[in-house]
Design a protein that fits this description.
CATH architecture of the largest domain: Roll
CATH topology of the largest domain: Chitinase A, domain 3
Strand order of the largest sheet: 7-6-5-9-8
Number of domains: 2
Number of strands: 9
Strand content: 25-35%
Radius of gyration: 23 Å
CATH superfamily of the largest domain: Transcription elongation factor, GreA/GreB, C-terminal domain
Number of helices: 3
Length: 174
């Protein structure tokens, strides 16, 4: 999670660091939200039980200071706990995307039909957790997704890509 650190001067004149968390919104479809809930439940139950079993077996080998199995199990435990924290954060800060019904402007959840260099393409604007460019699901945080947001049919958008500047014209919003 991104953090912001500021240096502030106290009443006594000394300086101290203050940390602030930057809470990001996670745009998810209802299906992806439910998928994250299932994964979280699996990690909290089966995942933790599996790690507990591995730790128990590793402890039976004796000296923990030179026990590779124990070290690996502790690392796996740390990884699972970090994944649980990450998924809980996503769920807590999620915004459910409602399927767009051809609004006046491009928004998250909309499918956009565009023209570029005489060719037509369709992209669906999703949250970053569901982006899959091979399926034309583009993140609202990507350069192309950001450029489309808020635009209307007929507008031309210039986007800087690795191949240079590209111009897209919005043909339809679904």
């Amino acid at each position: 999670m991104p953090k912001l650190q500021l240096i502030v001067q106290t009443a006594s004149g000394s300086f101290q660091f203050c940390n602030f968390r930057i809470v990001a919104k996670h745009y998810l479809t209802k299906e992806k939200f439910e998928e994250f809930k299932k994964i979280l439940e699996q990690l909290k139950t089966e995942g933790r039980m599996e790690i507990a079993d591995r730790l128990k077996k590793a402890k039976e080998y004796g000296d923990l200071s030179e026990n590779a199995e124990y070290s690996e199990a502790k690392e796996a435990q740390s990884n699972i706990e970090n994944k649980i924290i990450e998924i809980e954060n996503i769920i807590r800060n999620s915004v459910i995307i409602k399927k767009s019904a051809g609004g006046a402007t491009v928004e998250i959840g909309a499918t956009v039909k565009v023209e570029k260099n005489g060719n037509e393409f369709e992209y669906t604007i999703t949250g970053s957790n569901e982006a899959d460019p091979e399926k034309n699901l583009i993140s609202n945080e990507s350069p192309l997704g950001r450029a489309f947001l808020g635009k209307k049919v007929g507008e031309k958008i210039e986007v800087e890509t690795p191949k240079g500047k590209q111009i897209y014209k919005i043909l339809e919003i679904k």
